[in-house]
Amino acid sequence: MIELQDCIRRLESGDESDRIYAAEDIGFANDPAGIAPLLARLPAEPSRAVREAIFAALIQIEDDGVIEGALGLLDSEDSFLRNQAVELLQAMGDRTAPYLVRAFSEGAPDRRKFVIDVVSRLADPSSVDLYRRALADPDLNVVITAIESLGNMRQAEFRQQIETMVKPDSHPMLLGASIEALAQIGDRNSLDAVRRNFGGTQRLPGYLRPSYLKLVGATGCPADVGEIEFFARAGTLDAAALNALTSLRNRFPDLALPASLARPLQEMGLRNPPQLAYQALRLLSSWTGDPEVSEFLLSRLHDPDKVIRIGAIQALCEAGGENVQTSLASRLSGETDPEVLQVWGGKSRP
Amino acid sequence: MRELSGEQFDKLVQQIYLRLGLHFEDKKNYFLQKRVERRMDVLGLNNPQDYLFLLCFADPNGQEMQALANLITTNETYMFREYEQLEAFANCCLPEVLSAKQTRGEQKLRIWSAGCSSGEEPYTLAMILQEVFPQSQYWDCEIVATDIDENMLAHAVRARYWARSVREVPAEYVEKYLVKDGDSYIVREKTAALVRFQHLNLHDRLAMRAMRNFDFIFCRNVLIYFDDRSRKAAVDHFYNSLNRGGYIFLGHSESVGRISSAFNLKRMEGHLVYGKD
Prior knowledge:
By secondary structure, chain A is an all-alpha fold. Chain A has 22 helices and no strands. Chain B is α/β, with parallel strands linked by helices. Chain B has 12 helices and 10 strands. In chain B, helix 2 crosses helix 4. Classes of the chains: A mainly alpha, B alpha/beta.
């Protein structure tokens, strides 16, 4: 039997361990009378470990008083308390919904933003109404938070509303968030809408191009490869272009990349860090019948980074053919890394 | 081709870190890619984007993350596993703690191997302790090894291992601390005597409170099988179980920082370790 009053008293103990155990015991007691003392202790508590224990205890108390208390913490100047409060409310799930609606209506911009952070984890129908209001909010941060959240959840019903925000005179942060969200929602119409709103993609400002390429990768079709190539040739958008091409090829496995891309991809395979270079090598599997590309891939088998060697082997093996296997066998005779050898031996499945 | 793009890989790594506290470097791209493909096969998915969405936003009970965790972690246990981490313990943390104790005139050292399975880890620590700190025989040194599985503990107490379990043990250590007996190896009595095995459920909050005054805690590749709340509770207990100046070691890719901000991250000879100041 836990003596609640004793635990509450121990929250003020000079011993850190004692305070942690007191908080844990209060949570375990699951008594609403423990909520106020836990919340009251938080601002003065110097130990992060005790603070964390207090939040862990609050999660365990099944009473709506915890929700009210956590909402109060959203206005705190202490970022640790605010972030923990958001996590606490998210963990409490749909029962927070009516409280969030009220908090959004009555709160200052910061609180409205945090409410939307919490809503992103709810399945409650009232969240739709909150999103609608958040998209029309006078505070830009609230709008952007809502858009990001809708994108993460692939909420297609707000797609057209987000598309209308993608226009040249919108705030840059809003533009970026909107295009990223549309890429996640993944509707082809969004691509057309962005092109239309900007009067052609060449008029897209530079800072938006990575997000736009993401949209092309997620919603474009094989005919859009040329556009990706146009941006890829700029030499400053390697990551975005490679991601877009990889996404397109995932969506269209038979996608034939134009011959004009073979050279830029080889250059990307040389000038980028391993993870990006790996992507470039994998895309080069489209041309492994081309002697220049095959030779390039074979040359990468001696790269000190095994990610590069693995990418080259995968690309070469995808094309198949006796010559490739023979070349691989001779070039890999000195290979000792077990993972690389596994790729070569198993090709697709380690 | 169902390749994770670079951005998708980053998102996956971030999600695994947030949910499991496991960190994967860029060079693990291929490793993760293959495991994701296996999960996509099971789920009938063709696009990595769909899998990521499932993992990030449609997995409220964490079932899919757990299924992925089972593929990206290994249950195999052997002596001197995660050698570099043990080097940080042996070369940096242990000397620091011992030196501080000597300054204070203390002669007691306690190490906890939590989730010790069949005992390879605590015996490894015993070997390191004897090697790095020969005076340990004059100190009150204890390695408490706990596990929830009584069968594993019974195996551990026997201190007998197949060659596979000792394959990473340095040759000079094999000579000094193990005895070959047919096809197997037995931990020498003097080394084994440093280890005390004990049944313990890391979810048992009252039993956990009895685990106090440790200078080091090793809980490697155990918490990844816990849900968020249990993981947090266990780490809170570890915090209380550690003496000030002590260190906690999770698996080399696990992060205490994600689970609790109470510990201090320190860099020691290139290794990241978590301590309690």
